[in-house]
Specification:
Pfam family, one: PALP
Largest sheet: 6 strands, mixed
Number of strands: 10
Radius of gyration: 18 Å
Low-confidence stretches: none
Shape: globular
Cofactor: pyridoxal 5'-phosphate
Domain Tryptophan synthase beta chain-like PALP: 25-312
Strand order of the largest sheet: 1-2-10-7-8-9
Distance between the termini: 46 Å
Family: Belongs to the serine/threonine dehydratase family.
CATH architecture of the largest domain: 3-Layer(aba) Sandwich
Number of domains: 2
Organism: Photobacterium swingsii
CATH class of the largest domain: Alpha Beta
CATH topology of the largest domain: Rossmann fold
Helix content: 40-55%
Strand content: 5-15%
């Protein structure tokens, strides 16, 4: 595990010395001070706005990292991946920027907004009946059968290293940060951020935020192994789904996450509403999970400098309106 952390930190550093921010379609996102959240917790709260990233999600960072690090012969034959939407859009955008053919496997129930975004970026889209987990299973099987390169949404050192660039940006933009809160699905985002921040500022608290209806990685961390976890529908669809067998993110999450919290669907919806009303931004449920975690534990952040990662903005109008109805 320590070797994985060290390798990821080294890979993230190399990205800064490459064309990551030019050829791959990634840019450094802004860090916004939040007066309302700062007032709520009597501290200083900053929003790392990955919702403003290319494709509206942090996922393009990992995708660009993975595709840029492919051997040339594999770039020409193309890659495939599975995604509930954001990783698919990020991979499609990165592949288009780098001239690499890509096929994206998605669950048939993918939102229209996410499907349209992926298709417009030129990827071949394959819909699979069933869950996001099953789409991933089909993609893995097809990759094995055809010999194509499969790019995991999270279980890949280059993916995690790409997400780690967020951690380095956080340290540059808020060098006195005391805590970073990020939502957790497969664990690639928080593994990359946590590995890099801990390498430079080890006392920084890394907080994993989970929807109460689908705290899969949290349950796996508690069991110290990847297990099947019963899930229920959640506004945080971007973090939903099981963990790939043998995923390196489990050990990384156990190593870098200092505290965890779960939040209810109502708390997620309230957080989404707060960001809309006070920052004029639409965020997806997974980002709402991180905001709700700060609010739920506000006393823990008195006089602290806290960064919340707003991981994305890709939410359908129907889902967002449903969330707003919940908290009227």
């Amino acid at each position: 595990m320590e070797n994985n952390k060290k390798t990821i930190v080294e890979k993230t550093k190399k990205l800064l010395d490459s064309d990551f921010y030019t050829k791959g379609g990634v840019y450094e996102t802004p860090m916004l001070y939040s007066p309302v959240l700062s007032n709520i917790c009597s501290g200083n709260v900053y929003l790392k706005c990955e919702n403003l990233q290319t494709t509206g999600s942090f996922k393009i960072r990992g995708a660009s990292s993975a595709l840029m690090n492919l051997p040339q012969e594999l770039k020409s034959t193309g890659v495939l991946t599975a995604s509930s939407g954001n990783h698919g859009a990020g991979t499609a955008a990165a592949a288009k920027a780098l001239g690499i053919p890509v096929t994206i496997y998605v669950p048939a129930k993918i939102s229209n907004k996410k499907e349209k975004k992926i298709s417009q970026l030129g990827a071949t889209l394959i819909k699979v009946d069933g869950s996001a987990d099953y789409a991933e299973t089909v993609a893995l099987a097809d990759a094995k059968e055809t010999g194509a390169t499969y790019i995991s949404p999270y279980n890949h050192q280059d993916i995690i290293a790409g997400q780690g660039t967020i951690g380095l940006e956080i340290l540059t933009q808020t060098p006195n940060v005391d805590a970073v809160i990020a939502s957790v699905g497969g664990g690639g985002l928080i593994s990359g951020i946590g590995s890099n921040i801990k390498a430079h500022k080890p006392d920084t608290q890394i907080v994993g935020a989970f929807p109460e209806n689908a705290p899969v990685m949290k349950a796996c961390m508690e069991a110290k192994e990847i297990i099947e976890v019963v899930e229920f529908d959640t506004l945080s669809d971007g973090t939903a789904g099981g963990i790939e067998a043998g995923s390196i993110t489990l050990a990384l999450c156990m190593a870098v996450i200092d505290n965890t919290e779960t939040v209810t669907e109502y708390e997620i919806a309230e957080a989404m509403k707060l960001i809309k009303e006070n920052h004029a931004m639409i965020i997806e449920g997974a980002a709402g999970v991180a905001v709700a975690t700060l609010i739920k534990n506000k006393q823990a952040y008195i006089n602290k400098n806290v960064c919340i990662v707003l991981c994305g903005s890709n939410v359908s109008d129907e889902t967002f309106n449903s969330a707003m109805t919940m908290v009227k």
